Please model this.
Amino acid sequence: MDVRDLEYRARTWSGCITPELVSRLLERGHADVVESQAAGGDWFCALAWARVLHARGREADAVKVLAPYVATGWWTAVAAAAELLEDRGRVDEAIEMIRHRMKAGHPMALGTYTRLLARHGRAQEAFDLLVPYVDDGALAGALVDVAGPAGRDEEAAALLVGRIRFDHCCDDPWCCRGLDPDTAIGLLATIRERQGRIEEAIALLGRRQLTSVSGRDQLAGLLARHGRIEELRDYAAAEGHREALRRLAVLLEEDGDVKGAIDVYRQADGSANVEWELAQLLARHGRPDEAMAVMRALSGTHPSDDAILHAWSELCLDQGRPADGLAPFDALDARRGGVPAWELYWMRLPLIAACGGVDEAVARARTRRATPGTQRSTLPTSSPAPGAPRKPLPSSGSTTAGTGMTSPATSSTSAASRKPWPFSCPRQPLLPRRSYRRHGCGPTSRRSEVPAGALPRQTGVVPRADCLGRMAPADTCGLTRSRRHGIGRARHSSLSIPKSTLS
Model:
């Protein structure tokens, strides 16, 4: 296996079984297809099958499935394998596996390593490792995560306060590299909320330039978590952000006020995101025909929008109407002379499989390959200026402990002759993140450098990062079903494993 080829396929979903299709195959009882494709070298099938085996208690078999990928040193596979080891109580082996990649200089390894330490009683050590890297936005998020279990919230807060410039206003998209003021404010607010100083956290978040990052609003989340419905309602009305509206609707739904939740969406601006949330709400409460009508009208208004078509296809799959889901794709293909666009091609596969064409869907997925200019999520990553110094990652301990997997050999090249990061290993691209500014200082949107790790965290929990370095719920590896362009939960790579398959 070649790391670059694995990375290319995982990033572009090209020449492989897409995560969407893998999830749907498992949902519909085609675990044998996933198992056979996993044996044939398909990464997403291998990851899903390893998780299924792991949940069934067949740990050795799960390890064997991932072993060829781990042997290449590919970070995505290493992180997934370490999670399986941790879940089975083989914590020392998981720590050693991640530490090995950290010594090799992988840019995502230190954050994962320190969070792993903190989850297993070594939070003090993790905090000390991260202090020198507080100016790195992603690692500052890890520092805040481990500060709680380490009992060093005030130390972390002091480090952040010294880096916040409330009078600073960005005048270009790349003004603040590393730990920008808004990220520092968000992290400090996370600490204050964890300490129970809610009013102080709210006041801090009110001083941000960017009130919403990647469609997520930390203040809306804070108000929702503490049941402050009227404040959240006022905030949603004033700001009009989708996340604030969604949080308000979810809170009302949880309190049993479904009508109120529907009214929140129907009184909003009618954007595609809001209509999608409304359709999901209607479907959850036994009103599938209304949900379908909402999405049908939306897809009719925007007939070639891939995000809306993706949402439409998933709703049709969830309602058991895959033929209806294929209709707009067929119409678009006809307008293109029968040649499907790559952005839409991968969405068709689960629909084809649901219509009884499992073999056809699998064959199409394996043979289809993205061409230059049509790849998904291939944004360039930000890199330091040529010759700019970077702090070396800390090293510790000795060689990798036995994990049942072949670990990549450590390069014998001396540190002095090694190319500086990020050229020493391929770096995963971040998802595009739209940011909404309160003040007229610079563009209204940019690819934010705020990592998902800087978004709100569960109090008292050291979260995991997913296989691509973003934050994920504690029981997954970030592998939930994908929603693109802000519709639903945005994930670059996605797998959901149905519970029935795990038994």
About this structure: Strands lie at 210-213, 435-437, 464-465, 471-472. Confidence is low (pLDDT under 50) at residues 371-403, 406-459, 466-493. Residues 279 and 292 are 7 Å apart (CA to CA). The first helix runs from residue 3 to 12.
